[in-house]
Design goal:
This protein has 270 residues and is an alpha/beta fold. The protein has 9 helices and 10 strands. Strand 3, helix 1 and strand 4 form a beta-alpha-beta unit. The protein binds phosphoenolpyruvate and manganese (II) ion.
Length: 270
């Protein structure tokens, strides 16, 4: 086992780390966490509808991007802090903790003041300045796997956050780049048992960014829970055809509701 991540490694820390987010526990033998919401926060009405849907479906945490890492500078960049205030307002209205991405180390304190979990996105997994800043925050961090990163590189990135003083890290597998082009990325479900063996930190799966296509999200979400993920993060939208980002992979409200109901028996069986 690599010594490049001794804080993250299970060797010196055999027990599972549990991350407490408000009333929700992520990790160990806790019920798999259902994290869901739109790719981007777009308006008060949109995020309120989504928060209500998460709560009604028995979901645990509301997601919504406000600072968006878009491939093109001409794509919707997110509503920034204005969106974050709407996300927090919607989460509070329905009793849900919220997770949102922080892209810049200078925004860590501002986002940590408002959000319950700081997300570090795939494109920033090795932004070491950002990792160190997140390590100083007093909020849990969800660290997504870099789309071109090995599991060891990912765990070493997590080590930066722990080494800077923040032990509350959730890992998120979101698909990696391979030769396959039929899916947006290739969901590496093998990462779940491998990561569970190597680290005490919880690992969740994001099937939406992995496959990129709505109709494959439901089966992959079930597979993630079946293989032992501590949670899943799924994108849905009240009107996917008109979503400002990632509409193609966003479930409809109805599909999300059906999925949430179908996950419980899968989690129990796993
Ligand atoms: C997201 O979850 O909003 C996101 C941008 O995902 P990723 O960093 O995995 O591409
Ligand atoms: Mn998205």
């Amino acid at each position: 086992m690599s010594s490049s991540y001794h804080l993250v490694s299970r060797i010196d820390h055999p027990g599972d780390t549990l991350i407490q987010v408000g009333p929700v526990t992520v990790g160990g033998d806790a019920e798999p966490a259902l994290i869901a919401g739109p790719c981007s926060v777009e308006s008060r009405e949109q995020i309120m509808i989504c928060a209500r849907a998460v709560a009604e479906a028995g979901g645990h945490i509301l997601r919504g991007g406000c600072f968006k890492p878009r491939t093109s500078p001409y794509s919707f960049q997110g509503l920034g802090y204005e969106g974050l205030d709407l996300l927090v307002e919607a989460g509070r209205a329905y009793g849900l903790p919220v997770v949102t991405e922080v892209m810049d180390s200078q925004d860590v304190a501002g986002v940590a003041e408002r959000a319950d979990i700081l997300q570090i996105g795939s494109r920033n997994m090795q932004n070491f300045t950002l990792l160190k800043a997140a390590g100083l925050a007093r909020k849990p961090v969800m660290l997504k796997r870099g789309m071109m990163s090995s599991i060891d590189e990912w765990l070493s990135a997590a080590e930066y956050i722990l080494a800077a003083g923040n032990p509350h890290v959730i890992l998120c597998e979101r698909g990696i780049r391979t030769f396959e082009t039929a899916t947006r990325n290739t969901l590496d479900l093998s990462a779940v048992p491998v990561v569970r063996e190597r680290t005490h930190l919880p690992i969740i799966v994001d099937p939406s960014h992995a496959c990129g296509v709505r109709r494959w999200v439901t089966p992959l979400t079930k597979a993630a829970v079946a293989v032992g993920a501590h949670g899943v993060m799924v994108e849905f939208h009240p009107d996917p055809a008109n979503a400002l980002s990632d509409g193609d992979q966003s479930l409809t409200l109805e599909e999300f509701h059906v999925l949430a109901g179908a996950l419980r028996p899968v989690g129990a069986a796993a």
